[in-house]
Design brief:
Radius of gyration: 20 Å
Strand order of the largest sheet: 6-9-8-7
Number of helices: 11
Length: 327
């Protein structure tokens, strides 16, 4: 990576004495999940599992070492996001995507940081070295560089490195729904009034793949079961994505410019692999289990897969008001 900015993935440096974003020495801390969000939905004492399911943390205990500069920058970002949040879907949809990237990225990176620390400590106890593949070092390093746009003169040119959508969503007022995939840098959040889905390092390819259904959604307030299906589509699309995003990174006296290069097919290899309905149905069943919907309900013999987004025959968008499931 052609930049002199701090990159913790170069030496796998995840230490409480160094700011997670700038690399400066520090004794300050910042919560992974914004405090106003935890207070509003009162989930600070609930627990979130790490990827291997053997370790969990209270949301309120997840904190990152940070410099005063970084803490202040995120505090200012939180003020903007909270103000937009109070205006509901219209407020969030009006935000610059760069702000949404920085805000969702802070949470996803925070969880990734904990995954790195947990895995390093686990391996150390076994007397083994902690390492990452060159591919993951590059992916996470690029993500970290982009997140530094909060504190450094970093701009994004042309095609954006992410797919981010904001849409109206009907939930009970006290429900907060959150999912992520830290390795693949995916984020979803659903609350009363709106939902957000973010693929933070796909160069817009997954958003492009799902643009037809996103267009059909416009003018509707999604039912939560539709939200779960939508995120499952984004998540599975990422799973079968067959190309590595590439970036043009330039640096001069004015700062760093990042351009996400359009992803082009090489030969006969498509951008996305085969969409396997069996695998997708299992993923979707994991998200729909709160409704008691199992994989066998999604895939039935001689019937098209169950969907709450599209009529399987006409491909028309299903009106959320016709869905009788609770929200």
């Amino acid at each position: 990576m052609s930049t002199s900015l701090y990159n913790p993935f170069q030496d796998l440096l995840f230490d409480d004495h160094f700011c997670f974003l700038s690399g400066n020495l520090t004794t300050e801390r910042i919560s992974v999940f914004p405090e106003w969000l935890m207070n509003h939905f009162q989930f600070g004492d609930e627990r979130i599992e790490m990827m291997d399911k053997t370790k969990s943390y209270k949301y309120s205990d997840l904190e990152l070492p940070c410099s005063p500069e970084v803490k202040d920058a995120f505090a200012q970002l939180d003020v903007k996001i909270q103000a937009a949040y109070k205006k509901g879907f219209e407020g969030m949809a009006a935000l610059d995507e760069k702000l949404l990237f920085q805000w969702t990225g802070r949470i996803v990176y925070g969880l990734l940081y904990y995954e790195m620390v947990y895995e390093r400590n686990r391996l150390q106890k076994l007397g083994e070295d902690f390492n990452l593949s060159p591919m993951l070092r590059e992916r996470f390093g690029h993500f970290h560089l982009m997140l530094q746009s909060l504190i450094e003169p970093i701009s994004f040119k042309g095609n954006k490195p992410w797919s981010i959508i904001v849409f109206p969503l009907k939930y009970s007022a006290d429900i907060f729904s959150y999912r992520d995939d830290t390795v693949n840098l995916l984020f979803s959040m659903g609350v009363n009034g709106f939902g957000i889905i973010a693929c933070l390092q796909d160069n817009g390819a997954i958003g492009e793949k799902q643009k037809d259904i996103v267009e059909k959604m416009k003018g509707h307030i999604l039912h939560p079961v539709q939200f779960e299906e939508l995120y499952a589509r984004f998540h599975y699309s990422d799973y079968i994505f067959q190309y590595k995003p590439q970036y043009k990174i330039e640096s001069d006296e004015n700062g760093i410019t990042i351009e996400a290069l359009p992803i082009k097919k090489v030969g006969s290899k498509p951008l996305f692999g085969f969409w396997d309905e069996d695998i997708f149905a299992q993923l979707l069943a994991n998200y729909w289990q709160v409704y008691g919907i199992e994989r066998e309900d999604i895939l039935k013999f001689q019937k098209p897969p169950l969907s709450f987004l599209e009529n399987p025959y006409s491909k028309d968008f299903i009106n959320p008001e016709t869905i009788e499931l609770p929200f």
